[in-house]
């Protein structure tokens, strides 16, 4: 639904502005987009509009694309269960020195301030500390979710790491992280794949709010009721045009009046309107007067009363 929302917004930009926009080609370092994200006014933005993600966004203050990848990956059962969010944020904002546990692990954990966020980091830690291949490390990672297998992997990890000269304290600390993280995190590629529509939807909301709101209202991809999206539209300064039987369709379309854009409310917002009624209105537009509308659109009495209220 978010992909449909963005595709619809792009098509409206093309129809109204005559601009062909390639979302995959936009710069990933747009300052205005990240500034908008940092305000936490993220309703309608993919992945970061929930209350929990909005709180994390405010604390995280992302400034680049990789920050979105990390944030989305942090908001998962594995990192949350391992209490990894607070150490990451403290390290990011300079409230504490990152704890890499052992110098060998610094190159692996530097980008996340000593916190294991991605599957790839876990696999590389196992490779460095046990000498196994990355393929074998990935097999171990996937088996951590099974209690009986996790015990055997723990025995293998501790024995192999000890043989490579790591102290018992380091081994126990690292294993507690690995065991808690398990298979409940993200691989970095997965996080980045989620971060892409997050950034693209934020970019559209920042630079083309009218078209983006039209897409949101048409495809309804989020978790919030329509009234909050309408309130967000007003906060953004997006004009909301009332239902008009000569202009409204079953979609929320962008209309231009001079240099001003607005979103025309859809006929589907009329409570109780049937699909045949809606199609007759669309097919016979425009109407000369009320009598013409009544004769050619053949609305029900209920629809007529709703329109009178509008």
Helix and strand content put the structural class at mainly alpha
Number of strands: 3
**What is the share of helical residues?**
55-70%
* Assembly form of the protein: single chain
**Measured distance between first and last alpha carbons:** 29 Å
Mean pLDDT: 92
> What's the helix-strand series?
HHHHHHHHHHHHHHEEEHHH
The dominant shape is elongated
Q: Helical segment tally?
A: 17
Unreliable runs: none
**Major sheet details:** 3 strands, mixed
What spatial order of strands do you see in the largest sheet? 1-3-2
Q: What's the gyration radius in Å?
A: 26 Å
In short:
The protein is mainly alpha-helical and 310 residues long.
